[in-house]
Amino acid sequence: MPVASQSPTKAVTIERFIVEQERLLPHATGDLSDILYDIALAAKMISSKVRRAGLSDILGAAGNENVQGEMQQKLDVIANEIMVQALEAGGRLCAMASEEEAEIIPIPPSFRTGKYVVVFDPLDGSSNIDVNVPVGTIFSVLAKRQSAPHGELGDFLQPGHQQVAAGYVIYGSSTMLVYTTGQGAHGFTLDPSIGEFLLSHPHIRTPSAGKFLSVNDSYEALWSEPVKSLMRRYRGLEGGHKAKNVRYVGSLVADFHRNLLAGGVFCYPPNAKSPKGKLRLLYEGNPMAFIVEQAGGAAIDGERRLLSIEPTELHQRAPLYIGSRDDVALAAEVLGMTGALA
Ligand code: AHM
Ligand code: MG
Asked: What angle do CA 98, 99, 101 make, to 5 degrees?
């Protein structure tokens, strides 16, 4: 693996890395690489907007007119527009879908269409923006499977194991992009001085058992008994397990990223008020599940491997238990899951 080790003078840009990865796929046409470049560009643009979030507030709150007399837009709306505009013109997609839009986003007739669809959450955790907590962008790339030249709902409703690429960007103390095309999960850190994503975390491996538990336990009274029992085990109160440290940001990208690198499990269980949890399968659960499996971890919905779920709706929710493999295996055992983790 020529790019796995590097000296500071031989920095590997994301463009170079994507090209090297593409060479490993004998039938690659370059279309997928172009989509990834476009997403990396969008990530840089969103990052620059996020970095100015506090300043935008000074200049005018969302819904107010700014100094130029334009309406201020909410950052999640801006991030959505950036993603759409970065991806629609490339000729590689036949449609897109976003958490921000109820229906599929068509490719305008003035642009060529291609053989992929992308589904994304442009700014996950955006309720955290006002208090300067990390937020992120999550994306999933699928190959078109219907015959019509434009994208249809059926192109999006594919189980997660069919994803051809997936990733996320975290706008944290630095901006990082982590993606996979099924050949490992790789992380890149944005060097703001040169405006490039540089390979910083090649071939990420997540610890097999983690020290962190990320869960919003204000829902505890609404959980089922097996879920309560699982949480007691993670906390070392039942079953003789070593107690985990609880860390919950409330931004999936931030909680997932910490656990991916340091080891741990993120849970968003079903509860009596939300029987499918909160997180969306196609653009939150599935991309993270693809990455975590590539890093040696696992993801389930409590009944099956997350990537095996056949979706029926664009914005459907699914419970999520994701992270270090032994920790997710414990969830599978306590919740009575019968199938294999992966
Ligand atoms: P969003 O897509 O509307 O931002 O919601 C998703 C977010 C996740 O980032 C986070 O893990 C979760 O919602 C937190 O939900 P809760 O406040 O119920 O714990
Ligand atoms: Mg979200």
From this structure: 65
The closest ligand to the CA of 126 turns out to be 1
Closest residue by Cα to atom 11, ligand 1, is 252
Task: Answer whether 252 contacts ligand 1 (Cβ < 6 A).
Answer: yes
CA–CA gap between residue 230 and residue 317 (Å, rounded): 21
3-state secondary structure of 146: coil
**pLDDT at res. 1:** 45
Strand pairing partners for 246?
213
Structural contact between residues 300 and 306, judged by C-beta atoms closer than 8 angstroms: yes
> For 299-324, what is the mean pLDDT?
98
Q: Which atom of ligand 1 is nearest to the CA of 279?
A: 6
Is the distance from the beta carbon of residue 216 to the nearest atom of ligand 1 less than 6 Å? yes
Within a domain: residue 111?
yes
Rounded to the nearest 10 degrees, the angle between the axes of helix 31-51 and helix 14-23 is 160
Domain limit, last residue, from 201, 220, 251 = 201
Ligand nearest to the CA of 250: 1
| Structural domain that includes position 99 | 14-201
- Domain of residue 33, CATH code: 3.30.540.10
Could you tell me the pTM of the whole model? 0.94
142 Cβ below 6 A of ligand 1: no
Q: Going by CA atoms, what residue is nearest to atom 15 of ligand 1?
A: 250
Instruction: Give the pLDDT confidence of 179-204 residue by residue, as tens digits.
Output: 999 999 999 999 999 999 999 999 99
pLDDT, residue 59, reads 46
Question: 259-293: per-residue pLDDT in tens?
Answer: 999 999 999 999 999 999 999 999 999 999 999 99
Asked if 218 and 280 sit in the same domain, the reply is yes
